[in-house]
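anyone seen this seq b4? input:
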Amino acid sequence: MVISVALRPQIKQPIFMSTIVEQIRQAVAETVATLYGETPDFSKIQVSPTPAEFSGDYSVVVFPFVKMAKKAPDAVAEEMGKAILEKIPQLSGYSVVKGFLNLETAPAYWQQFLQGLNNDPDFGRGARTGHKVMVEYSSPNTNKPLHLGHIRNILLGWSCSRILEAAGHEVVRVQIINDRGVAICKSMLSWQKFGEGKTPENSGVKGDHLVGDFYVLFEQKIKEEYEQWQQTDAATAQYSQRKKQEQERKDFFKDYKNKWFNEFSVLGAEVREMLLKWEAGDPETVALWRRMNNWVYQGFDKTYGDLGVSFDKLYYESDTYLLGKDMVEMGLNKNVFYRKDDGSVWVDLADAGLDQKVVLRSDGTSVYVTQDMGTAHMRYQDFGCDRMVYVVADEQNYHFAVLFEILKRLEEPYAAGLYHLSYGLVELPTGRMKTREGTVVDADDLMQEVISIAREQARERGEVDQFSVEEREGILKKVGLGALKFFIIKVHPKKKMIFNPEESMDMQGQTGPYIQYSFVRINGLLQRVAREGVDLTPAAQYTDIQAQEKELLKALHEYPQLIQTAAAEYDPSLIANYCYSLAKSYHKFWHDLSIFNADAADARAFRLELSRAVGSVLNSAMSLLGIDMPERM
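predicted toks r here
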């Protein structure tokens, strides 16, 4: 789903930047109308940065105007170049290359732009749009701690929410906690039977980890019970009744496990009984449920705090699982749904390529899509958001396609603003993780691992002893978590990825620490400026802008529009890769040109002001990704 043009916010720009690209597009429209007597479609006027191998800053594609001009492309470009140069004083020249009009901006424009950027603490942020956007992310189960998959979910949701805010929207951050059901009862029963009174306090184990350990223990116990049952006469009878001639016994029992759990397992029966007691409000069961969930919530809060993320409101499945039934009745009255002979209620979405879907079982109980319908409606009542973004793995693509189509047919007022931010699986170099087998890498352990790698690398470079313990640990946390966050966010959400902790810390690669080091370099320069009282006023006289300087200026110029694009596409990787590109350009600038020791005072002042601007934008852009920038490394 793509946001419609009507919903895309306008960009807030300083007065001097209305922007030059928009000025060029407007001048192109006026020039074409004047020269050739036709008004072009403004939305189709293409203005883009000029490729590095050609002279100029911005290029206009003239081929759309050739037919109306009845002239060769180069002739059209030549005519348009002369006219546009007269209209825009910020342009200093043009050239024509194979049907492209390359325009060059005047040094005065870049002077004004740089000064405006450094005087605007909100540079890049859009004006308020009046749109309210809800972003749902994380949404864990309370039978296990947060893991690597959750980290990708959380980082995508958090960064998207910050980018949407920077684009000018009001943002509400929420999660729905899956705190009920069979999986939760497995952890509860396991603790009840095997826990021996363990608590986070008396065991020293973080609450969510403790509960997760009992979930894994339950799966081990159920595996043992199943293996023992397979040797019984009852198991042989089931195999004999259902076996196929070509089917091996072990294959049969592999496929039969779920049916066995529901019909023959002793532990399975106890889990089902516990769930029924919870649904009936049994005081003892509910008390145990609350106690163990509270352990988990305390653990989650610690992990969220370490990641630097938060929520405006929490929703709980125990409160929402009965929602949506009234919407089913409404849908029946509108003929959106239909009832079968067994009493179940369905929706036919075949015309949308989604087949038929049950929304209410024959016994009157809800399915997941039903409660999600009710939850969406409740959230709209709570916040009045005109857009809702669900950050959920691509395994649920079909579910959200069904949900959104149903809400559209029910004519819910927010239905046009629903978006599923679908993302691919994240693995470690060792392969896929499995919760039931206890092979999942917990989020807490992963964060500690990247911080440990940062600590070891700093020790190898001899950078540890120069800081106090408190300052050193603060820097290592920023670098380690910056590496983790950037490595995950830089990948387009829809792509599967492998997270490599060692690779994420490469100081020479496309990593968070590489970008943080650029910022530290700049910070060191500016501290020296402050210490030595360097006069920066000569920067205004600098006109001999070098190619490396122009490259940085043009990149900074793109930042406001980039925020808008990343918000419209719900794609934080655009910001991440922009940060890397900007840092890489700055390192080249640092290497190629003398900055503090430049020969002329105006060149030194300008390059220092340019460095300040790069540092400011890097800090701003990385903060949109939830990444803190250290002042020293």
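The domain at 6-105 is CATH 3.30.1360.70 (Gyrase A; domain 2). Residues 1-18, 433-438 have pLDDT under 50 and may be disordered. kinda curious what u guys think
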